[in-house]
Amino acid sequence: MTDRSAERDRLVRLMAARGVTDRRVLAAMNQIRREAFVPARLAKSAYRDAALPIEAGQSISQPYVVALMTQALELNPPDRVLEVGTGSGYAAAILSQIVSEVFTIERHGQLAATARERLASHGIRNVMVKHGDGRHGWPEYAPYDAIVVTAAAEAVPASLRVQLTIGGRLVIPVGARDAIHELLRIRRTGADDYEEESLEQVRFVPLLPGRTEPAGKRATEG
Ligand code: SAH
User: Fold this and answer.
1) What per-residue confidence (pLDDT) applies to 3?
2) CATH code (residue 163)
3) Which of 83, 138, 164, 211 is 20 to 30 Å from 172 at the Cα level?
């Protein structure tokens, strides 16, 4: 296997140069081999600061966007985190290095299954992957200290906000399809109180409603 640790080092230094200051985020990016979360033919591009195509017509987010969103969650080691949009599993892997438990939901059965395998092959045991519609959150394990949505919603789903702890943070791109999206951070300040701030302009694949794509032969539910 090619050793890409020098490329990984370079990427982490680039993240710091681009303004990522959270040491836990930078350390996690140093731990996770991004090349293992992209299709094999793209391994040589894994440490470019770019989104790349993955299976099922989806994409693995740009490293800078993963770093920015993870930093925006203001994580602490005991936290429990929900991710909507597992995709490749890379962002979940980064989260797994920082917090105690990660719950992640993916609409495409094939992607959920592949992400499970990739996480297991990294020896990561504190991530639970579910095949389903993440717009409803994962009520069984709520509340979460932080929730991150890695696909763009037209509006903030109410069921996600109520699955935050008091003090919890939700980071989500919001905006119309095919538009530039606003990266929002919503902080739950009381049972019925939320504060909202806009962090950045970003561009994401859409958070899709409705039926989840079947798992196909390889995947299992939940
Ligand atoms: N976090 C990912 C980025 C994934 S791209 C990574 O690190 O690679 C966004 C993902 O959200 C896609 O895989 C897409 O299938 C998924 N998605 C879209 N709508 C969804 C929904 N309603 N519930 C769960 N996942 C959804």
Assistant:
1) 84
2) 3.40.50.150
3) 211
